[in-house]
Amino acid sequence: MMITLSENAERSLHDYLRRARAYLRGSKSVDADEVEQNITEHIESELEGAAEPVSRDVLDAVLIKLGKPQQWVPIEELPWWWRIIFRLRSGPEDWRLAYISFALLVSGLLTLPYPPAGIVLILAGFLASRAAVAEAGDTTELKAQKWLLYPSLIIVYVFVLLTLLTWPLILAPLADEYEHTLIESSSRFNNEGDYWPVAISVIVAGLGLWWSILGAVVLKPRKLLRIIFNPFAEKLRSKWAIRLLLIGLVMMILSIGTGIVYYQRLI
Amino acid sequence: MNAKFFDNWTNQLRKGVLELCILNDIRNRKMYGYEIVRSMRKTEGLIISEGAIYPILSRLKRQGLVETFIMESPDGPARKHYKLTKQGEKMIAQMNAYWQAISGATNSIEKGKI
């Protein structure tokens, strides 16, 4: 795009083109890349002469005239999953997919003691919610349906996020499992009291290292995070990734330092 | 109920007519995508969403009815233009003949002449 857009407009355009690609790639009769190129040229031509950076309102007026990408391709040309989604959610006033998502979540929670039914139902509810969000495109269109759709998303996202942040803690049970072996093989560890401060330092340093890596990775490709945590990652800012990176580094340095100092004092 | 029937009917009709208009427009002069949209805008009620023109162009190209070529412009960037292929010219002649016949017959039915 040769025209400068405001940050909000840039995001709006990015979402619009992403949705257009998603619909068009499924269609056998059109070349998605060619259509995307035409759409981009169309937007540039429409915005020619507009005050830069172009605001979201100005851009949205152009996008509204272009229409929703789902209006461009006949439903029979879309892949089966899109056809199912459109049958279950024909527009903003159609609540069926939202009800299905919520019902699946509630059923999943009720059957959670009977695995794997509970997990499967929660995941199905999650997929139904994601499908509704993808169909809506703009989350403001969801209005009160959010109350039915978002719980499924939040439950899965919180689980994914916690797993992402804390998986290095699996070092703790490992440290416990190898406690005796490590104490016996080291001349410095005389008992559990010597071993655990060093082991905990290593675990916390591992966690810090992982957070630093995670912070560095999500600093740039925020696009990936937006796709994974859609629609909640919309307001993701670089400063959060920087904070995670710094906290991780501080944790790692302090833990390694503490561990080394403690280990050297052991005789 | 009637409004829904009318919406469905216009949607079905519009799709075919839009393809006919695009092919006729390209037959008369080589045009780029945005130019075709601007041209179609002039006909009230023909396009509901302007973006729908581009998948139609892509489909027509895949079907071998139109082809593209890059043309330099004196007052802007080089643009991809559309023109009819030989197959496209034959097709639009057939489509126009069919349209003339059907619209003539429709008018006659409307006026009670048949």
- Helical amount of chain A: over 70%
Number of domains of chain A: 3
Q: In terms of quaternary structure, what is this? A: heterodimer
Helical residue percent band of chain B: 55-70%
How far from one another are the termini of chain B?
30 Å
Order of helices and strands of chain B: HEHHEEH
Count of separate DSSP helical elements of chain A: 12
In N-to-C order, the SSE pattern of chain A is HHHHHHHHHHHH
Structural class of chain A: mainly alpha
Q: What percent of residues of chain B are in strands?
A: 15-25%
Structural class of chain B: alpha+beta
Distance between the termini of chain A: 66 Å
Could you list the spans of chain A in which at least 5 consecutive residues all have pLDDT below 50? none
Overall pLDDT of chain A, averaged? 85
Rg calculated over all Cα atoms of chain A: 25 Å
Largest sheet descriptor of chain B: 3 strands, antiparallel
Characterize the structure shown:
The complex is a heterodimer of chains A (267) and B (114). Chain A contains twelve helices and no strands. Chain A is mostly helical and 267 residues long. In chain A, α2 packs across α3 and α5 crosses α7. The radius of gyration of chain A is 25 Å and the shape is elongated. Chain B is α+β, with helices and mostly antiparallel strands and 114 residues long. Chain B has a three-stranded antiparallel β-sheet with strand order 1-3-2. In chain B, α1 crosses α4. At the A-B interface, α2 of A face α2 and α3 of B.
